[in-house]
Amino acid sequence: MTTPRAASRVPRTRLGPAAGTSVGDVRGEGAGGPPTAIAICSVALFSAFMQHGSSVEELAKQLRSELNRYSEHEKLPSSRALVERFRVSPVTVSRALAQLAAEGLVVTRPGAGAFKAAARAAAPAGDTSWQEVALSAEGAVEGVPRAVDASGVLVTLAAPPPGVIEFNGGYLHEVLQPGAALAAALARAGRRPGAWARPPVDGLPELREWFARGIGGAVTDAEVLITSGGQSALVTALRALAPVGAPVLVESPTYPGMLAIARAAGLRPVPVPVDRDGVRPDLLDQAFRATGARVFVCQPLFQNPTGAVLAPARRPEVLRIARAAGAFVIEDDFVRRLAHEDAGPLPRPLAADDADGVVVHVSSLTKATSPSLRIGALAARGPVLERLRAIQVVDHLFVPRPLQEATLELVGSPAWPRHLRTVAGELRRRRDLMAAAVAERLPDLALPHIPAGGYHLWARLPDGTDERQLVTAALREGVAVAPGRPYFAAEPPAPYLRFGFVAVASTAEITEGVRRLAAAWDERKPDRPNPA
Predict the structure, then answer these.
(1) How many angstroms separate the CA atoms of 332 and 248, rounded?
(2) Three-state SS at 355
(3) Which of 85, 191, 474, 485 is deepest in the core (most CB within 10 A)?
(4) What pTM was computed for the model?
(5) Which residues contact 16 (CB under 8 A, 6 or more apart)?
């Protein structure tokens, strides 16, 4: 950015210097006349604005608003003219034009410039009512309808309305993400030789080796497949291990996204209760015998939503019961890298103690980094690995190499262990603050277990509480929380609420969010009549 030049140097282009400024304001009253004082002032003011708050978005917004003055296919001023007039860098102009091109508003032609794009013709309205029959009819053949309910997943992806404190988010807030380390890793990855070449379908060997070391035991890089995050890995695993219409055993409660995956694949989730020590082996054995299921999906470490850790005595029991049933255990180790500062030594993944290929291990880096770092891994041994690989290739071909290269740069840098230590300390502080605030302001809510890892608390509500009513009341007060019902594959034993502490910007938001939740609770208390 430079100080605006003399008025005589103001380019005479059709684009005005600010939204709402007419062409005449810039040029003077005549098309060829000198700039007026108003024009000079406008350009100076806009230049100052750009100096203090310039960005690609601001320039794109300005150009977007002024495209209305152009006819279709009419040429815009040259990039040099836009640089000169708006006092921005050529890179800013190039990126702003690229953004408009991506929106379909302009067309860029190498060597010729940028032109206003032709308006897109509205697509004729068709009749899609036939799909209702087609999508429902398959259920009669398969026995289990493949209706997809994405609400449990969308609740952690959708941004809340402005001013609403996000207690239902499942990803680190930007202030907790390793933003600088990710940016540096991506830049270094872009300079690697062959960074944009086609990667091996199983993933980069070095990244597979890194995941294998993290699992431990006898797992090798040859038994690891790189996936596009943990959700993708779960989809692949369930498709590989269970035929359409089959039962699949799940923890109760469990991650709603996993239930959605199972139902979308035409599977029948069968719940197995979890207590503070993880899944109950006696009920797991009964469920295998009653259903003939060949798959059990579990989260042995900081289970979602209870936060439970599978007790040491139960770990070999789970593997023994599954092995006796001729079944696989899908181990969703999604949050190992979000252990809290006071967690102590973590138990090894089940896969590390599995010699018979019972466990199909799923892990991911997304929760510990950024929702956009969609990098995960599947690990398995035996013939099942080939089936997993085949489905992975058919569904996804491969994970983009630049993302794999950037991941290698990130986890191999000194910034990675520093980030994990920082997050571990921050999560402990946030957990303690939220638990104390709930105990003080919401004594009617019970916290059966305070986890030493993960990003949320699971609260039992008093009998008779209407979860949906409470969630709606909380949203009116300006805080978003998740009801417990979507976490159960069958009828829930009691009403619950899940609220997290990682998607907010600060501890002050946690305190304020709990205060708002308490106000909603007072409004919808079970022993008080609901307002008419």
Answers:
(1) 14
(2) coil
(3) 474
(4) 0.75
(5) 22, 23, 25, 26, 42, 66
